[in-house]
Amino acid sequence: MDKIALYFGFGGDLYEAEGWFSWQHLVFVTSAILITVLLSVFFARKYKDKNRNEKLKPLKVASIIMLSAETLKIILVCFRNHDVWAFRSVLPLFLCSILLISLPIAAFGKGRVQESALDFTQIFGYIACLAGTYLAGNIFASPILSFHVNVSVFTHCISCFAALYITLTGLSKMERKNIWIVSAILLVFEIAALIVDIIQTPSPYEGNYMFLIHPAGTPFSILMNAAGNIQALYTFFVMAIYFVYMFLFIGGYYLITKFKPKAN
To answer: In whole angstroms, what is the distance from residue 252 CA to residue 173 CA?
Structure first.
């Protein structure tokens, strides 16, 4: 029972953390991503020739599982801290956790809102997975065999599953008329994250959503150095880099589809 309690973060860690880019970290996340890719390919092959409603079924299941895991995490965070307001430290305002909102809309939504959510999930699902596994220096400050790390890697891999599944089944069309909606989604969440960051800093729930306040052990340290440690400039760089990535992804998508051989 003591080990179970420690797994969930009650009373300390199971053991000393292995550390970011340790062999344990690399083996763990690589194994998780390989399983994710295999599942994505399997379900894409299974549903590729189905109608749109059938194709959406794996996304619906994935979104429900993802929301359930994150809800359990929020409950445990509050319970572990003996504070119902502790949820403010785990709001879905990181770039990767925005998929907690975009994925259900992509799976259950309708019309152009759903189309844009599918685009958004495809665009940011890959980078969310990468950021939450290989680049997650802040997450892997905890032991690999702990609830916090396991749920984080699990939900980030669901993001990868969704993005790859959407790509392989052609659910996302990346239509030009929807790009402004995708951009608006990103901008709204950036502004919301920045507002919450400012309100919560300094506080027991120090705000750093989307890493807009400081790099927190991530590669965003490069942007902080480029900004000369000027807070406002660093925040602008981080907000801008998300848009740069988005438009590079869209540009690459158009190039690939433009030169893709047409079926006879």
So the answer is: 13
Instruction: In whole angstroms, give the CA distance from residue 77 to residue 89.
Output: 9
Residue 1 has what DSSP assignment? -
Query: With contact defined as beta carbons under 8 Å apart, do 212 and 224 qualify?
Result: no
Q: Tell me which of 4-18, 59-73, 132-146 is least confident.
A: 4-18
Angle, vertex CA 19, rays to CA 27 and CA 197, nearest 5 = 110
- Give residue 95's identity as a one-letter amino acid code: L
Angle made by CA atoms 212, 217, 220, in degrees to the nearest 5:
45
Write phi, then psi, for 228 (nearest 5 degrees). 65, 30
Q: Which of 111, 129, 219 is nearest to 167 (CA)?
A: 129
Verify cis geometry, omega within 30 degrees of 0, for the bond prior to 202: yes
Give the relative orientation of helices 147-169 and 99-108 as an angle to the nearest 10 degrees.
40
3-state secondary structure of 32: helix
Would you say residue 262 has pLDDT above 60? no
